[in-house]
Design a protein that fits this description.
The complex is a heterodimer. Chain A folds into 2 domains: 103 residues, Rieske [2Fe-2S] iron-sulphur domain (Rieske Iron-sulfur Protein, 3-layer Sandwich), CATH 2.102.10.10; 276 residues, Naphthalene 1,2-dioxygenase Alpha Subunit, Chain A, domain 1. Chain A has 15 helices and 23 strands. Chain B has a single domain, classed as Nuclear Transport Factor 2, Chain: A (Roll), CATH 3.10.450.50. A 6-stranded mixed beta sheet of chain B has the order 2-1-6-5-4-3. Chain B is globular, with a radius of gyration of 17 Å. Chain B starts with 16 loop residues before the first helix and ends in a 14-residue tail after the last strand. Classes of the chains: A alpha+beta, B alpha+beta.
């Protein structure tokens, strides 16, 4: 009986949550969040099904799979998938699961393969994911198995945006272009600053944090506010000896972007000036933490070329940015870390982090990014260590009864954001604000509660980047 | 080279028991400095040209097994110099390094120490295993296990030795800790 309008899960049946209840967990009008969004097991199952099972999910950078047969093993939500470069240079993304008894087909992290042969009973698939060989096909199956029907489950669509490969399980999903929408304008300041685009430093850094995936995704979407407090220690420690700690002050001017629809967000420091010498840029501290050559390259040497590609606004006025593409892809332009937050139950994530660099940057700059990212934003990085501490402590607290009842305040800057900025697409608020967080959570609720994509992405949302 | 991928023929140590004992005692004393949070005293035993590295650990197919650890131009978990170790140490001294404030309790258990002659009379290649136990706040526990290959030489430091290079391998391809805020 469905008189409560419960959302029906394909896997679990009635979810125990009605659409109205889901939408009520995130109250934009009051600016509150119900902490149960971070802990409830049934909500988590709905997320796997209705968010990770439908949305465009980042799976790899193209540079990770360059030659035919190159593969990268990753996850869409909790589903293991293989991302494989095909002979015709196209990309397939399919479930890393044998259709016979569900054994993981490929247990290597990455590599080059001619085929994927299951190590349980020997069913063998080509790199496109077609079942090509079954042991004892005539004696055991009497040649009656229709191998065409038994390839691993393929994602519905795979599309690439400026080097980043995304896949979706949903045939009805909008194009990746429409899904990213206004966010592309800001993504380009990370992925398309220079001719040749980006590549990656080899190796994915993976670690586990005992927290809900939304804490991580939301922070990179919307939270510059934590940086001056959470990350005070490396900013002090990186100052040359003899410089007073007051110099570690973080900038205060900047803006935040909330996607009009879609849940994406970014924020960065930004003044009205067109040209700021690198020594006075508001992200000089961050760039200094990466390294002097990388900082000079990013802020000075590559600037003219970047201006020609992207224009003054994006070349000069995006400093020290953080960004999340809904639901679980985040990156830091300038610092050049990119990561997927893979959910592992409501209480845990795996962080999979990559270092992304301009392909045509000088070798010494790439080397400084290789070193600088691992020393700042990585499991041993001097900034990221503190994020792990915060999120774990929040999640532990949410085991309580009362701690899950008192709503959190997500109202910073509510009512002070504006659309129709001449320079910046989307809804624009203050860099220290939660406009993008409210957009992220509102979209999260809608995506669980809403079946049809058309109402998630109203046609009237025009995108500057597409013009 | 990472401590786990040496291809040399198996051989028993060619050093004297006295030297083996001295180097073992140095490793224990150094571990004790870290576990007592005497980071400045530990730092005094790092050579000026220190290279301190921990590659990523990958799961690879048999024919790509030579790529089980990061290559030099790939991402590492640590790739530090004495100067960057100094920044990490200063960070811990701010009192606002929240991942270590209040501080963790650690025990560096060092074993399987094997010594080879280095290419100078007073420098030695020292292989060891570590089991780094971390207890943090109320009940967080981390176990980090791996191997180290150090280049250690005699020097006018309080303990009489200094670490020139330290190549660390961690036996987890996905690090099961929320951060690596400790020294290895």
């Amino acid at each position: 009986m469905d008189h409560r309008d419960e959302i029906n899960s394909i896997l679990t049946g009635a979810s125990g949550w009605t659409r109205a209840e889901i939408l009520g967990l995130v109250d934009e009008g009051r600016g509150t969040l119900d902490p149960r969004i971070y802990t409830d097991e049934r909500l988590y199952q709905l997320e796997l099904e209705r968010i990770f099972g439908r949305a465009w999910i980042f799976v790899a950078h193209e540079a990770q799979i360059q030659k035919p047969g190159d593969f990268f093993a990753t996850y869409i939500g909790e589903d293991p998938v293989l991302v494989v470069r095909q002979k015709d240079a196209s990309i397939r993304v399919f479930l890393n699961q044998c259709r016979h008894r569900g054994m993981k087909l490929c247990r290597a992290d990455a590599g080059n393969a001619r085929s994927f042969t299951c190590s349980y009973h020997g069913w063998a698939y080509n790199t496109a994911g077609d079942l090509v060989s079954v042991p004892f096909e005539s004696d055991a199956y009497f040649n009656e198995i229709d191998k065409k029907q038994w390839g691993p489950v393929q994602t519905a669509r795979v599309e690439v945006y400026k080097g980043l490969i995304f896949a979706t399980w949903d045939h009805n999903a909008p194009s990746l272009d429409a899904y990213l929408g206004e966010a592309k304008f800001y993504m380009d300041a990370f992925l398309d600053r220079m001719d040749g685009g980006t590549e990656v430093i080899g190796g994915v850094t993976k670690w586990v944090i005992g927290c809900n995936w939304k804490f991580a995704a939301e922070q990179f979407c919307s939270d510059m506010y934590h940086a001056p407090v959470s990350h005070i220690s490396p900013t002090i420690a990186a100052l040359p000896d003899g410089i007073p700690a007051e110099f570690a002050k973080w900038p205060d001017k900047g803006i935040q972007f909330r996607a009009t629809a879609g849940g994406h967000g970014t924020g960065f420091f930004s003044g009205p000036e067109k040209f700021i010498p690198v020594e006075e840029r508001e992200d000089r501290l961050l760039l200094g933490l990466i390294g002097p050559q990388a900082g000079k390259y990013y802020a000075r040497e590559s600037r003219e070329a970047c201006r020609e590609r992207l224009g003054d606004v994006r070349a000069d006025r995006i400093n020290g940015a953080h960004m999340t593409i809904f639901p679980s892809l985040s990156f830091l332009p300038g610092v050049q870390t990119l990561r997927a937050w893979h959910p592992r139950g409501p209480n845990e994530i795996e962080v999979w982090a990559l270092t992304v660099v301009d392909k045509n940057a000088p070798p010494e700059v790439k080397e400084e990014y290789r070193l600088g990212v691992m020393r700042t934003f990585s499991v041993g990085g001097m900034l990221e260590q503190d994020d792990g501490e915060n999120w774990v402590m929040i999640q532990k607290g949410l085991r309580g009864f009362k701690s899950r009842q008192a709503h959190f305040n997500s109202g910073m800057g509510k009512g002070h954001a504006k659309a129709d900025d001449p320079d910046w697409p989307g809804v624009i608020g203050n860099v220290y604000g939660e406009e993008a967080a409210r957009g992220f959570y509102a979209h999260w609720g809608k995506m669980i509660a809403t079946d049809d994509w058309a109402s998630l992405y109203p046609a009237e949302v025009k995108t500057k980047a597409a013009e | 080279m990472s401590s786990q991928v040496t291809k040399a023929s198996p051989a028993l140590p060619a050093v004297t028991p006295q030297l083996q004992w001295e180097l073992e005692q140095f490793l224990y004393a150094e571990a004790d400095l870290l576990d007592r949070r005497r980071y400045r005293d530990w730092y005094a035993h790092l050579a000026e040209e220190l290279h301190y590295r921990m590659p990523l650990t990958f799961n690879r197919q048999a024919r790509e097994r030579d790529h089980e650890y990061s290559r030099d131009d790939e991402s590492f978990l640590f790739d530090d110099t004495k100067a960057t170790i100094h920044i990490r140490l200063k960070r811990l001294e701010t009192g606002q390094a929240w991942a270590e404030e209040p501080p963790s309790r650690t025990r560096h258990m060092i074993s399987n120490v094997r010594v080879e002659a280095g290419d100078a009379p007073d420098s030695f290649i020292v292989h060891s295993y570590f089991h780094l136990y971390r207890s943090r706040l109320e009940r967080q526990v981390d176990h980090l296990v791996g191997g180290r290959t150090d280049l250690i030489r005699r020097a006018p430091t309080p303990l009489g030795w200094e670490i020139v290079t330290r190549d660390i391998t961690l036996d987890q391809s996905t690090v099961l800790s929320n951060n690596l805020s400790m020294f290895f």
